[in-house]
Amino acid sequence: MKTILVTGGTGFIGSHTCVELLNDNYNIVIIDDFSNSKPEVAEKIMKITNKKVKLYEGNVCDTELLTKIFKENQIDAVIHFAGYKAVGESVAKPLMYYRNNIDSTLTLLEVMSDNNCKKIVFSSSATVYGNPERLPLDESCHLSATNPYGATKLYIEGILKDLYISDNEWSIAVLRYFNPVGAHESGLIGENPNGIPNNLVPYIVKVANKELPELNIFGNDYNTPDGTGVRDYIHVVDLARGHVKSVEKIFEESGIDYYNLGTGKGYSVLDLVKTFESVNNIKIPYKIVARRKGDVAACFASTNHAKEKLNWEATLTLEDMLRSAYLYSKVIKKGY
Ligand code: UDP
After folding, report:
1. Quick one: which atom of ligand 1 is closest to the CA of 291?
2. Is the CB of 295 within 6 Å of ligand 1?
3. Which residue from 75, 310, 23, 281 is spatially nearest to 175, judged by alpha carbons?
4. What is the pLDDT of residue 192?
5. In angstroms, rounded to a whole number, what is the distance separating the alpha carbons of residues 80 and 57?
6. What residue spans of 146-199 are helical by DSSP H?
7. Which position among 34, 180, 189, 280 has the lowest Cβ density within 10 Å, counted as fewest Cβ atoms?
């Protein structure tokens, strides 16, 4: 049985990935500082899978704690999710983003090296494509950062590349996520952002629950079929399964490779509103407002590389995503 250290394992994507890894018989050790999640999530992961996880509370920048984790556990590979991820906040607090996201990765890689653990899956993002050079986006498209959050992802990709060049024993999978949404079908884990959400689906969910009066659609004059922004939404459970496939891959061979994890399909903001309304049988009031600064018209993935190399592709539908997202919000409202 292999043991995977999951940094940020109680977060949105981390928790779903832990569930899929446990279902696939991996041992899981989590490190999380709960800056954007709660310790109870670890219990939910165990409840869903009926398996144990080992949980350490702390920040990945903490060399001593990481060293202790590697001493107390035989870690075979790491999935590195931990990091700050709010675009707007990163513009307001760039130093906080650079310090946390870069420092934690450097610390992790140093401690991994010291312990001769050279297998890592890194959570990157489609944000590294900046303003898309062409659509669908494939892994060879031009990379650029449009905000400090995106820059941290891009720099870390560069750090991993240099590390591999220096030592070919490393085995590195860089996963570029498109727009993860939805929740586990149990309704026990999902996305639960603090305050007013920045992302579309959590915002729609809050409108559905009458916690916010209406959705603001950021522009309907884009060059897209209905004028609203188009994105590649992917069910978080599909995404989690992509991590399991990536872990298998890094155990097979050394190297560094980059994978888009998306569905390859683009849906508009209005598509999401209509689908949410029909699957959940609820009205979502909205108004059209000005474009949001920095938004692109359309962004969706070419998924061929992940299909060929990882033998992975998304199978769940937009309906599945929006049904499960709403279900989870109702469960947490009841306080479970
Ligand atoms: N969007 C919107 N209203 C919101 C949040 C998002 O109209 O309250 C739009 C946004 O302009 C984009 C799409 O929904 O076209 C997805 O936005 P999100 O922030 O979820 O993802 P990202 O822009 O990072 O891909």
Report:
1. 11
2. yes
3. 310
4. 84
5. 15
6. 148-166
7. 34
Give the residue ranges of the chain where pLDDT is below 50. none
Question: What is residue 292's DSSP assignment?
Answer: P
Predicted pLDDT of residue 47:
98
Q: Is the CB of 218 under 6 A from ligand 1?
A: yes
123 closest CA partner among 40, 12, 1:
12
| Residue among 138, 155, 30 nearest 80 (CA) | 30
Atom of ligand 1 nearest to the CA of 299: 25
Helix (H, G, I), strand (E, B) or coil at 119: strand
- Stated pTM of the model: 0.97
199 lines ligand 1 (CB under 6 A): yes
Kind of pairing between the strands at 267-268 and 230-231 = antiparallel
Residue 243 to residue 79: CA distance in whole angstroms: 8
Q: Which residues does residue 256 pair with via DSSP β-bridges, in sequence order? A: 172
Cβ 186 under 6 angstroms from ligand 1 = no
Structure tokens at 34: 């709960």
Centre of ligand 1 to C-alpha 142, Å, is: 22
Q: How high is the pLDDT of residue 193?
A: 81
173 and 124 Cβ atoms separated by less than 8 Å:
no
Report the distance separating Cα 104 and Cα 98, nearest Å. 10
State the helix-helix crossing angle for 200-208 and 269-280, rounded to 10 degrees: 40
Atom of ligand 1 nearest to the CA of 222: 15
- pLDDT at residue number 336: 57
